[in-house]
Amino acid sequence: QVQLVESGGGLVQPGGSLTLSCAASGSIFSTYAMGWYRQAPGKQRELVADITRGGTTNYVGSAKGRFTISRDNAKSTVYLQMNSLKLEDTAVYYCNAKQWSGTILKDYWGQGTQVTVSS
Q1: ∠ CA(5), CA(88), CA(91), 5° rounding?
Q2: Are 1 and 99 in contact (CB under 8 A)?
Q3: Out of 27, 32, 44, 101, which residue is the most buried by the measure of CB atoms under 10 Å away?
Q4: pLDDT in tens, 14-27
């Protein structure tokens, strides 16, 4: 089982940048695919970006070209660098870890970190 703790959220002006971090513990980090999701008020949680165990990245929607997901297996940490932030990026951002054991998917979540984009 893995425990996830996000940090780095806060208040930023439109056009600004933030870097979120998610520190993992309790298991072998390199065996997990990692992702960042977000949930805005009144909306469903949605995938922002994810990264495979091998480092292949995937971005969804407006994250393309503005956000960068990366992982440091030595530090058991995944990052989300967010640039050119927009008002609509305001949400709680959640770190996610996925691990397959045969046909069983193990899915873990952090507690979330608030990102508010406002002038």
Answers
A1: 25
A2: no
A3: 32
A4: 999 999 999 999 88
